[in-house]
Amino acid sequence: MKNKLQTCLASIREKTDFKPEIALILGSGLGDYADGIQIETTVDYSEIEGFPVSTVTGHKGRFVFGYVGEVPVVIMQGRVHYYEGYPMTDVVLPTRLMGLLGAKKLILTNAAGGINEHFRPGDFMMITDHIATGVPSPLIGPNLEELGPRFPDMSEVYSRRIQDVIREAASDCGISLREGVYVQLTGPNYETPAEVKMCKIWGGDAVGMSTACEAVAARHMGMEIGGISCITNLAAGISKEKLDHKEVQETADRVSKDFKRLVTKIIETM
Ligand code: HPA
């Protein structure tokens, strides 16, 4: 794994010496954001030796290097999901890579199903904490000592400072913001109503198939993290409707303008 990370890092460094301050991972349907920034260069995942390539439709597979305002950023346009069949260490490899490229801060975004009965499709939920126990920890296996400790603390995965930045950014943009706990399950099937009930009893407000594992790997490296879920649908059993990936994309499209304004404001002020 160490070698794979270093191979990928060297492969990117052959193409660019860009040094990002902030890393951003774009969720399902939110990938457009990267097209609107001041792009310096892009690197397709397929150009990176040893890199796990995403297979989901609607996910582009590339790193975008550029500026949001004055801030140098690296954006993952399309992430790698556990349900694609990669080992968890590969799933978080891009996150680690962005950390090694120099990003000390990470913003995670995703599309998620709403569990909290006050949530509506199209809401933004700031992630205050997560439950990652539905997937294997990305830290299982020999510890990469040069990245972080064997038993890293997870008592503040989503930085309180960045949470304040996100609240303030939402308020400045006039965008209403929900807050809650994100539960990661493996997917790719959506949950059963019983599973959603379980997530609710666990203390979850939203459920999805990504993000928490990336947050664990990033926190292990000491990155400062913020997270936002776009509630694209009500989770199974909360709504009477059947779930469909199309609905997820349609909702993400509908709110993409607000999403762009919010994320830009967050990056500029964090
Ligand atoms: N469940 C899991 N993942 C999701 C959902 C959902 O309802 N909506 C978008 N991603």
TrEMBL record:
One annotated GO molecular function is: purine-nucleoside phosphorylase activity
Species this protein is from: Claveliimonas monacensis
For this UniProt record, the keywords arranged alphabetically read as follows: Glycosyltransferase, Transferase
User: What is the recorded function of this protein according to its Swiss-Prot or TrEMBL entry?
Assistant: The purine nucleoside phosphorylases catalyze the phosphorolytic breakdown of the N-glycosidic bond in the beta-(deoxy)ribonucleoside molecules, with the formation of the corresponding free purine bases and pentose-1-phosphate. Cleaves guanosine, inosine, 2'-deoxyguanosine and 2'-deoxyinosine.
First-tier enzyme category under EC: transferase
- EC number of this enzyme: 2.4.2.1
One of the Pfam families matching this protein, by short name? PNP_UDP_1
Does the keyword field hold Glycosyltransferase?
A: yes
- By what name is this protein known? Purine nucleoside phosphorylase
Family stated for the protein in its record: Belongs to the PNP/MTAP phosphorylase family.
Q: In which pathway does it act?
A: Purine metabolism; purine nucleoside salvage
**Any signal peptide, and if so, which residues?**
none
